[in-house]
């Protein structure tokens, strides 16, 4: 088993006034050659956007982009004709940029900030037709369980153009579980959204992350109540 730990305070950060952001991996003006990506996981940004502010229309291509609101509401528009799509906590958005798309993201509220995770995964197949998906997930289904929200398969999850799996878990203090990886050459990046947990024997706190690979299974134990995001991706 191999591991790499990224403590919350070591993340890149930028405050643009309307946007306060932290970058687990190199992004924008933050560049660290040792933190370019984890396998096919390229970006994990923790964004706080002021009321009414946001990212104007801009292009993307050949990237799988997942947005997970933690609080507040996020408004999405794109060149595929999706206008004023709003996602809130417990909803997840997946945009396959494919051969090219324009989109914007704004805080839907004029009064409250929105805090969301924006995650980019490199695609399995390039230049596909762009797709947009969003789905509401029941938080009760992840209490002391691992709830899969994104996978390559059609069904109850959002479908991604990669052999990648996103999962959420709300684990009560003292609860322990094992996560089994789907592929021999996969790794999983575990991000502590809130609380405290021990992952692969390593103690982690709020907004800490750990990448684990060269194993088929990872043990996780909540040392306090813990909200976890798991991102499993091919490492090659």
TrEMBL record:
InterPro entries: Pirin, Pirin_N_dom, Quercetinase_C, RmlC-like_jellyroll, RmlC_Cupin_sf. It comes from Fulvivirga kasyanovii. It comes from the Bacteria. SUPFAM superfamilies: RmlC-like cupins (SSF51182). PANTHER family: QUERCETIN 2,3-DIOXYGENASE. Belongs to the pirin family. Residues 11-121 form the Pirin N-terminal domain. Pfam families: Pirin, Pirin_C_2. Transmembrane segments: none annotated. This is Pirin family protein. Residues 149-233 form the Quercetin 2,3-dioxygenase C-terminal cupin domain.
